[in-house]
Amino acid sequence: MAEQFYSILTSIGKAKIANASIFGTKLNLTTLALGDGSGKYYNPTESQEVLVNEVWRGNIGAIATDSENSNWIVIETMIAGNVGGFFIREVGVFDDEGSLIAIGNTQKPINQL
């Protein structure tokens, strides 16, 4: 079981952010994916390109800088009420090219339904 709960940029995410900064382009974060970690907690790594076991994916509804920590971003999505039957143990943020930019694990399993 993971003992720490956090989100990190993936290696691909770091490279894309660096390229966007250097070349003045925009990184378009478009989708948020949720996974159940195949029933187990784990510590996400920078080398990951996918979630361990993705169970849901949807469009990002809003992105903002955290009001208390300007180094953090807050990403929101809407999950339909008829979606569920799984525990959320992992989350991933993807860009418009389908690359996993950031990945995180959750402190407690969040049950959808």
Automatic annotation (TrEMBL):
Pfam families: Phage_tail_fib (PF12571). This is Phage tail-collar fiber family protein. Residues 1-107 form the Phage tail fibre protein N-terminal domain. It comes from the Bacteria. It comes from Clostridium argentinense CDC 2741.
